[in-house]
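lol forgot to send this yesterday, sorry. struct tokens for the thing we talked abt
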């Protein structure tokens, strides 16, 4: 995948912020209706994030994950609102060299919705300093992550690469939370990515 100029990345963040704010005003942060309230969470059997009786009605949010540059993954652009509804844009290249841009729409399955809700409700997440998860790694896929809590006006916006999961300056519970979040988001992208028959 081609690298993107840093100025374009900065512009993308500002556009994302404006886009999320408009969506909140238009109802993207409306009450959830499709996410399970049973607390059924499956994160590779990690007991650290198991929760019971999650109340999803008290938190409204918008979530965006974007793969900016990767040698192994498509350029995904994933948006989820607090109803559990997802819009997924992706750019993929076929073996013949043709570039295709399928778009998918879906609702998060209950376990995925509950796990995402678990992360979004963690106040520690919004205290992460982006400079502490921006290592100078020679390898890794570059991605951006943006979460905005409409109910509390909290947000996190960062751009980093996948090696930041282990190589970062975070400590304690915040570091553990970040190490759980990144692989979960990557699994979301792989699971819900719209596809087509590659020829």
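and heres what i got for the seq, position by position
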């Amino acid at each position: 995948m081609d690298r993107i100029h840093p100025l374009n990345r900065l512009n993308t963040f500002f556009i994302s912020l404006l886009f999320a704010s408009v969506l909140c005003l238009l109802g993207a942060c409306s009450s959830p209706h499709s996410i399970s309230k049973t607390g059924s969470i499956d994160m590779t059997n990690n007991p650290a994030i198991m929760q019971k009786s999650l109340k999803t009605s008290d938190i409204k949010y918008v979530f965006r994950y974007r793969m900016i540059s990767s040698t192994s993954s498509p350029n995904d652009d994933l948006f989820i609102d607090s109803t559990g509804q997802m819009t997924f844009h992706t750019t993929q290249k076929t073996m013949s060299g043709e570039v295709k841009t399928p778009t998918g729409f879906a609702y998060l399955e209950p376990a995925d919705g509950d796990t995402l809700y678990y992360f979004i409700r963690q106040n520690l997440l919004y205290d992460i300093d982006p400079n502490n998860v921006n290592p100078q790694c020679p390898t890794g896929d570059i991605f951006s992550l943006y979460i905005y809590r409409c109910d509390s006006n909290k947000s996190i916006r960062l751009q980093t690469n996948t090696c930041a999961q282990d190589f970062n300056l975070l400590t304690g519970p915040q570091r553990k939370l970040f190490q759980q979040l990144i692989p979960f988001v990557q699994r979301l992208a792989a699971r819900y990515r719209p596809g087509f028959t590659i020829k």
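The first helix runs from residue 6 to 26. anyway ping me if u want another try
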